Amino acid sequence: MSNSLIFILVLSDIIAIGVGIFAGKYIFQRSFDQKEKEAQERAAEILRNAESAAENIKKDRILEAKEKYLRLKGEFEEDANKKRVILQTNEQKLKQREQSLNQTIEANKRRENELETLKTNLNQQLETATKRREEAEKSLHQQVAQLEKIANLTADQAREQLIDALKAEADTRAGSYVKSAMEEARLTATKEAKKIVIETIQRTAAEHAIENCVSVFNIENDDIKGKIIGREGRNIRALEAATGVEIIVDDTPEAIVISGFDPVRREIARLSLHRLVQDGRIHPARIEEVVAKTRKNIDDEIVEIGERTVIDMGIHGLHPELVKMIGRMRFRSSYGQNLLQHSREVAKLCATMASELGLNTKLAKRAGLLHDIGKVWPEESDLPHAILGMELAKKYKENPEVCNAIGAHHDEIEMTSILSPIIQVCDAISGSRPGARREMMESYIQRLRDLENMALSFDGVEKCYAIQAGRELRVIIDADNVSDEKAGMLSFDISQKIEKEMQYPGQIKITVIREMRSVAYAR
User: Fold this and answer.
1) Residue 474: which domain range?
2) pLDDT tens digits, one per residue of 61-83
3) Which intervals of the chain form a coiled coil (predicted)?
4) CA–CA separation, 452 vs 448, rounded Å?
């Protein structure tokens, strides 16, 4: 093929391509212009719609704003009206108070004037009374001097003779008046509210002490209750008099309640009842015999408890009296905490602490077990229990360090040994742990002991028992040395001493028992 032909073909292709490009560009431009025009029209329409919607929204917002403005305006006016009414009311009240205050001030001024006048009158009357008293005293002195000259006695001597005469007359007539006067006072009492309060306090005291102050004696059938009570109650009275507890026989099935603050007395009564019921012979003489045997058996049991305790604790060489006192701790409580359990606990704590400090553990354990023996000494003493325990330990030849630890564990004497603060700390640990002690129980029992001791301080009193949670005091007197008339006076004297020297809720009934017995032997 020739070159010219090729050139022509190429040129024709180029022309075709250029024509195609030009045509495509034209078509594209025309399509683009058309779409642009449509887009502009659509945008204009959207703009018109938006402007219309914005106008509508604007109108709605304006309406809402106007409504809100009107509503807020109404609320503000309503609130303003209320406050205006309140202000007017307060102004009226202030005016009334101001008027009242002015009236009060005027009244006070009038009262001040009246008081000033009254003060002036009183001063005048006082001056007059003082003058009259001086004149009366002067006249009295003159009369006394004349009487002393006539009677050859001074005023003090005459007064003493008159007092002696009145005392003698009062002693002879008081016995017959006391009983009738007390009965009349009971019958004429009109304050029922005080009686209700007293009874409530007494019930509360009984319920508070019931847990540690009663024992229950179980019986097989209720027929035995009649035998225990006896004809006209003589058996139960004899049992109460011999043991010092209260025997409560009520509707409780197959049970008798033994009430008393002293656990030794309750245990003696319980064991005595058990033996009497088993034996079947229940009468006053047999009751006294069984109670005496039971009391001896309890003493033997106390010694056995003490010996078993010292063996368990590994303590040797204690005096028999100290062993007996340790056994007596089993029946004694301190602030509601069993004293033997407390002493054992203190002994173990002391041994542990002494071991940690490199001290004598046996000596520490010994002092811990004996630190409260002063609380179980059977005789009355004015010494604190720590000092009393120290004196007992010295009496029975205990180690001086042990004696000092016992006496110093409540800081009543100076500590001279390192063992003493250990005992004090361990005693505090045992007593202060949660639930260990109850202060009210200890003060309650101490009040009953004081009540019994107060009655025992009178001449002719053989035995005394506080029963019914301290609401009754039974006093058994010596019939040979105290007459019926003196027994009546004795109950009154005991009640007066209790009223003066003791604090107690409610009232306490003092029952003085005088029983005459005639005993003869046929040989």
Assistant:
1) 439-515
2) 888 888 888 888 888 888 888 88
3) 91-153
4) 6
